[in-house]
Amino acid sequence: MQEYRIGVIAPYLDGEYYGRLLPYIQQAIRERRSRLFAVQVADDYLGIDSLEEPIAVGLIDAWIVVLPSASSAVFETLDAGGKPFVSIGFPSPIPAGHSVLVENRSGMRAAVEHLIEHGHKRIAFMGNPGQYDLHERYEGYMQALAEHGLPFDERLVVQTEDNLMSGGEKAALELLDRGADFTAIAAATDFNALGAIDGLQARGYRVPRDYAVTGFDDIGQSAMNYPSLTTVRQPLEALAREAVSRTFEMLSGRPAPGETTYVPTSLVVRSSCSCSERSLFRTADEFDRYLVGLSQMRRSIHAITYNSHRMTKGLINATRDERVDFSKLFWNLAHWGCLALWETDEDGNRQLVVRQSFTKRGDPVPAVGTSCSFEYFPPLETLPPGTLPGGEDVVVIHPIHSELQNWGYVALVGPLGSNHLAANDLYRHSFTILAVALERELLFNRVRSIAEKLEIVSNTTNDGIWDWNLETGRIDWNIRAHKILSPSAAKLTSDPRSVVKLVHPEDRRTMWEAFERARSGVDRQPIRLELRIAEGEEKREHPIWVHLAGDLIRGTSGAADRVIGSITDITEKKINEAKITQLAYWDSLTGLPNRLLFKEQLKEAMEERNKDGLKLAVMMIDLDRFKIVNDTLGHQTGDLLLQLAAAKLQECVGALGIVARFAGDEFIVLLSRIEGAEEINRVADRMLDMLTKPFVLEGQEFYLSASIGACLYPCDAPDVDSLIRYSDLAMYYSKENGGNRLKVYTPALSSKRVERFNMETGLRYAMERGELALNFQPQVSLASGKVYGAETLIRWSSSDGKTIQPGEFIPLAEETGLIIPIGQWVLEQACRACRRWIHAGMPSLVISVNISALQFQQDNFPDIVRKVLKDTGIAPHNLCLEITEHTAVQDMEHSIRMLGQLVEIGVKIAIDDFGMGQSSLYWLKKLPVHIVKIDPSFIRNLMEDSDDDAIAKAVIEMSHSLGLSVTAEGVETESQLQRLQQLQCDRIQGFFTGRPMTSEQFVAYFLEIANW
For the chain, N or C: smaller number of CB within 10 Å? Predict the structure, then answer.
């Protein structure tokens, strides 16, 4: 006979149901020379009632599952494995599985019909219909009522919280408390029935005289109870043998999958149903069985008492040391055990690792540290001989869980226990005790690690430690704390008031209040204070600063016991903070307040003026032509001059206000309390007069002047920023009108500046809002009449509907630096337009893009061009970059290097506006360019002005001699075109051949020219 390994998954292995069913299963498996692996999954403490992982799935040949004690994920794994599967007590969740079920409906129907025969018409039902077998019993109850024409009353149905006696007792009391009209109870389990009897008797009712009660299961206590319980007998031996028989048939491939086997029940009539006239013992054998049952119950009670002592002793021995010794726990009859915990390796793979094992018979055990896949746990090669086919031992596997984590699994080997009379035998608790002990061990190691670190920190840190015992009122200070508080530490005692006395008088109240809140426990926030130590200050340049921290420690009752904390010397930190504050609020060169401090002082002055109704003034002062001093004499001399000017300005303002350095050679003045503009004029006159007098530095005289702008509050502006901005506007007006004067702000000054500001603001968001657009002006070859390409021109339609000309916003973009992102956007969009043209059948076109001086100065500009070409997918020869003559000759060395890199990429280079600058043939010869573009100013009067004609002719001939082509811009008449043809100009662009147009219009234009 072939050996098989049969896995049984069950919530428990003991008690009236599992404790009697499992030995029958084991016996049937042993008879077939195979091995039983029992997986017990339930944990009453954590509420776990199903297996979450398919443990040992690789070892097992077939599975028997008692009640739905595995998760859906485990069932899916078992189904995917394709191994025989038999369920006991519930329909198989696996389509190919087989179910062995008790005839629950007919059994309950027989019990209810028996009560009806006694004349009962108001029969209550108690049980938990959420379980499959109990739901079937509920259906049997309903069928019996219906078949006998009795009405269903939902008030007579009570759902129990469990299947035990306590659940039945509560359900009976609930029926009584409801005032339900009933004369009999049909309980779904015997334990519920026995509990119901206890509940009824506790209220003074007699069973069966006042109420009849029936149960279901026929557990051992049913016959020995008083009164004895009428019940339905579950044939557990037949149930077990049917399940094992079907399992082995499936292993041999005989039975059809998906079938169900039903095992019949039988009604056992005793006295609880009012059959008291019947004799309790009809035969001598029945009386003998009764006495045997009493003897077994006595032995069971004795075993529970003795096992309780053994488990307590095992718990003490197992947890005596820091590390739990799981072999000393109460494992009942187990003589071999293995504890494997989940661990994760360096690659992140989770596996079981053997951490403890034991044997009582000298059998081999797996080595500590052995890794094992959970599908093949426990290792077969290490199991004792008693687990071999036909042996009496069973392998029990149990998951170890705690509230903290899933620890792993325990495998135990030994015979099944004989205590089936007591559900929840004490050895179950060992699994929970082991989990708690492992959790305690982990937490203990963490605490010890923390304590070791704290000890190291305490010995090596610069912090002092203090411990305030709130019960005794004493504070202990370590040596480091005494050193920090030195030289005041001599007066430091265990009295909390001693440290308070050492603190600066201005900080004492804050500290004492924090101590009082901590002591009372009212404030649960930690103590966090920065304090000055009073004694010894007169001997030091800076006071001793300390940071005092502490937190409350509460006892088990929740009351505050202690405050433990630290004290740190933060004197150096405070000195650095003062330096940082100095740097943050004061100008390092002149010693004046800086912009940040000035704005805070201005805000405070404005609040005061709001109260007294007076005015204040802000004056912005910019030293005229100061840049010349820096450029000619150097910044060191310039800095000395700024220091002298700052001193003079302070002298002029005096007690009337505050002078601050705003930026560079700009100063700002606050006249904090004035009556009107006359006082501004007087102060400004003093400043201008003072600055006209020579400043002498190293024997050399310097003369300065200033542009001054002023603004009044609250007349001119309502807030800090507006006051500064308007005084700045007035100052710029002074500077633009020659400088060395004062201008007081008027609203008229704002209009031009505001317009420029609005344009700048609008330009910053123009790309995001999609307000910028490109037009393209055709460039036509004079030799062939074909379209050579197009020059890209940018247009801006602002959000208010206005069209702003490039001549207005391009200079602003260059001044603000916005030309960099705008220029790159133009380059990208132009290249994308060219790609569309190429795809439309115009592959030879060249798109020309103007490059600003700022773009040209970027060292990474060639990289930008390469990326745009790559992203847009056009060839380098389709792109022409145009730079102005002025930009090209500004820095010849840079231009030669930059243009050389661009030419290496393969793009064309054109010199725009040629003839407007001071370049010569020599400079043009040195630049690596391809095209010269004649400025429109020479073309406009080409036919009327002989000088312009001569210039155009010279440029064309000179360029051709250098191998360059020429494009004439601004061609507006046919006569200009004809003259340029005579001069052998290569290309023209202008209104005569095409105005600027959209990309779509340009495509149509090209097709029209090509067809013509």
Answer: C
Dmax of the chain from CA atoms?
149
Return contacts of 309-314, CB within 8 angstroms, 24+ apart: 311/426, 311/427, 311/429, 311/430, 311/433, 314/430
Contacts of 359 (CB under 8 A, 6+ apart): 335, 336, 337, 365, 384
Residues 6+ apart with CB under 8 A from 367: 354
> Residue 343, by phi and psi: left (phi above 0), alpha (psi -120 to 50) or beta?
beta
Which region holds residue 970: left if phi is over 0, alpha if psi is between -120 and 50, else beta? left
Q: How far apart are CA 710 and CA 691, in angstroms?
A: 18
Cα-Cα-Cα-Cα dihedral of 397, 402, 408, 412, to 10°? -30
> What is the C-alpha separation between 668 and 671, in angstroms, rounded?
10
Residue type, 898: M
The enclosing H or E element of 784 equals none
How many helices (H) and strands (E) would you count in the chain? 31, 38
Work out the average pLDDT over 306-313.
53
Secondary structure of 496-526 in HEC code, one letter for each residue: HHHHHHHECHHHHHHHHHHHHHHHHCCCCCC
Q: Is 753 exposed, middle or buried (0-12, 13-18, 19+ CB in 10 A)?
A: middle
Peptide bond into 487 cis (omega under 30): yes
Are the C-beta atoms of 861 and 897 separated by less than 8 Å?
no
Q: Which residue would you say has higher pLDDT here, 553 or 789? A: 789
Radius of gyration of the chain (CA): 50
DSSP track, 106-171: HHHHHHHHHHHHTT--SEEEEE-TTSHHHHHHHHHHHHHHHHTTPPP-GGGEEE-SSSSHHHHHHH
Q: Is the dihedral of CA 141, 144, 146, 148 positive or negative?
A: negative
Please report the sign of the dihedral spanned by the C-alpha atoms of residue 706, residue 709, residue 713, residue 717. negative
Q: Tell me the percentage of the chain whose pLDDT exceeds 70.
A: 85
358 touches 365 (CB < 8 A) = yes
CB distance 294 to 302 below 8 Å: no
Asked if residues 41 and 67 have their Cβ atoms less than 8 Å apart, the reply is no
CA triple 97-100-103, angle to 5 deg = 140
pLDDT tens digits, residue range 13-65? 887 888 889 999 999 999 999 999 999 988 766 778 889 999 999 999 999 99
- Nearby residues of 984 by Cβ (< 8 Å), 6 or more positions away: 956, 960
Q: What is the 3-state secondary structure (H, E, C) of 28-78?
A: HHHHCCCEEEEEECCECCCCECCECCCCCCCCCCEEEEECCCECHHHHHHH
